Amino acid sequence: MTTVVSERVSRTEEALAALRPDVRELTASVDAAVLRPSDESVLSHADRARIALRVALVNERWEYADELADQLDSLAGDGAADAVRDVERWSGLPDSLQALLAHCEQVALDPADAGFDEIAELRAQGFSPAQVVAASQVVAYVSYRVRLLLGLSLVEQAGDGPVPAGPVNAIEAGATADGCELPTPAEAFPVLRWVPWVDPAAEPPESEAESTPFHLTLLHDPQVLAERTALHNAITTGTSALDRADRELAALATSLINGCEYCAAVHGRRQVQLSGDQITAVALATAGPAAVTDPRQRAVVDAASALARTPAALAAADIRRLHSAGLNVDDVRDLVAVSAMFAWNNRLLMTLGNAAA
């Protein structure tokens, strides 16, 4: 068993080795903080492995799921993973664990359908705000990791096969689907507040800056918050092969697929600011990918959107199309990391609170 587990772990780690060094090292640090924290008082390693296994399964990342199943069996005894794999066997689990797994699966599948009522149900089952946040971080992190594993493997497999023809743009630039003029960037991407559904943690007395409600909510799990923030910043604003404006476009496309109004507004504004382009991001948010006329930008949007889905629909042909549009291997790897990161961000913002004007 130990040999099989180590072989599976080495294969998944090998897939992530293609990431640029800072992102690779920070991903490893986050992995340990989310799935194997030194303090198990909030959520045990076994429960974290149970949640991670369900997320890997609904994303159809079978090898990673097998790795997590091996870890769960080693933590909770042989058969523990089978009880999580087979939904019909959930009835043998405690009611609170059934509720937690059902919620986490929904967040992984479609965060737009996991809202205040689901958080209230977890609280009624006895889960504390810190436990809710910790479980949410497990779902969101594994949603990120499975997309990294798929996207990076496709980059290696893409080869020199046929490049699909770019999709035909059905909407003229500057028009919405119904033929009306586009809104302004300020209208399309308004400044929104984020209102938590989980009681935020108390701000540390030594803090010098006022924290946002989102930061204070994630502060229930301070180690993961710190590790995640460093990784997020490296991917979205750090030194990268991929242009910042393209990264913001990928973040916007991912957020639109997931239905994250808050992220779409923030990253739509940033894309406009960084690119100086008053049309593309607005057209994407208003009329969809068919209104993106530039071949490079359309390839970025379509790839990020495909990776955002659950299970992800990204294919080797999409990677070849990115190359044909002018993105090199490092560009594409960074694009994968951005879309994967926003699979994480969106799930936290959409399921721990909501956007408000």
Task: Describe the 3D structure.
The protein is an all-alpha fold and 357 residues long. It contains 17 helices and two strands. The protein has helices at residues 2-16, 21-35, 45-58, 62-76, 80-85, 95-109, 116-124, 129-157, 185-188, 213-218, 222-236, 244-258, 261-275, 280-287, 295-308, 316-324, 329-351, and strands at 193-196, 353-356. The chain has a two-stranded antiparallel sheet. Helix 1 crosses helix 4 and helix 12 (244-258) crosses helix 15. The radius of gyration is 20 Å and the shape is globular. The model has no long low-confidence stretch (mean pLDDT 92).
Q: What does the secondary structure layout of this molecule look like, with pairings?
A:
Layout: H1 2-16, H2 21-35, H3 45-58, H4 62-76, H5 80-85, H6 95-109, H7 116-124, H8 129-157, H9 185-188, E1 193-196, H10 213-218, H11 222-236, H12 244-258, H13 261-275, H14 280-287, H15 295-308, H16 316-324, H17 329-351, E2 353-356
Antiparallel strand pairs: 1-2
Helix pairs in contact: 1-4, 2-8, 2-11, 3-4, 3-6, 3-8, 6-7, 6-8, 8-17, 12-13, 12-15, 12-17, 13-14, 15-16, 15-17
Characteristic key phrases:
single chain, 357 residues, mainly alpha, two-stranded antiparallel ribbon, 17 helices, 2% strand, globular
* Beta-strand content bin: under 5%
Q: How is the largest sheet built, in terms of strand order?
A: 1-2
Radius of gyration: 20 Å
Round the mean pLDDT to the nearest integer and report it. 92
For the secondary structure, the number of strands is 2
Task: Describe the sheet with the most strands.
Answer: 2 strands, antiparallel
**C-alpha geometry:** globular
